Amino acid sequence: MEKQIFHLRDSNIRRNCIDFIQQLPANPEAPFEIVIQERKRTTDQNKKLWPLLTDLSRQVEWFGQKYAPEDWKDLITALVAKTKKQEQRTAPGIGGGVVMFGSRTSKMRVSEMVEVIEAIYWFGTEQNVKFSDDARLEIEWAKRWGDKNRSAA
Q1: Over the chain (153 residues), what is each successive 10-residue block's mean pLDDT?
Q2: With contact defined as beta carbons under 8 Å apart, do 129 and 66 qualify?
Q3: Are 24 and 32 in contact (CB under 8 A)?
Q4: From residue 150, how far is each of 96, 102, 125 by CA, in Å?
Q5: Angle at Cα 120 formed by Cα 68 and Cα 61, nearest 5°?
Q6: Which residue of 19, 46, 62, 114 is surrounded by the most CB atoms within 10 Å?
Q7: 132, containing H or E segment
């Protein structure tokens, strides 16, 4: 059987999902797995993420270093993980240095991406970054995120 995905947006879709589940055979030897979860990040979130990371890479020097947008993604996702008290793992790099195992934004849920984007705005505002998009509301949310999470960082 092919994977079936329902995006729960209204009561009709809810009924279709329930009907679909009720038609599935119950088999203790080969049970179906039913997963209900928040959807993954949106296209709009991804479109917003990379210009913000590019703004950081162009304008912020961190401990004497300029970093690429990809590096800033790792730094910001590590910040978000730390504020959520998630385990951060590191390992010695095969060719030297240290490798930090970070979160994959491609696997993040919508709410997790909201936190990453808010953290970028908060950090960028702290570093006087002039963001390239008109995002005053997100910057205000980011300030609140920073106030709430500053003690955990």
Answers
A1: 88 95 94 89 83 94 95 89 70 84 79 90 93 62 62 50
A2: no
A3: yes
A4: 32, 20, 14
A5: 45
A6: 114
A7: none
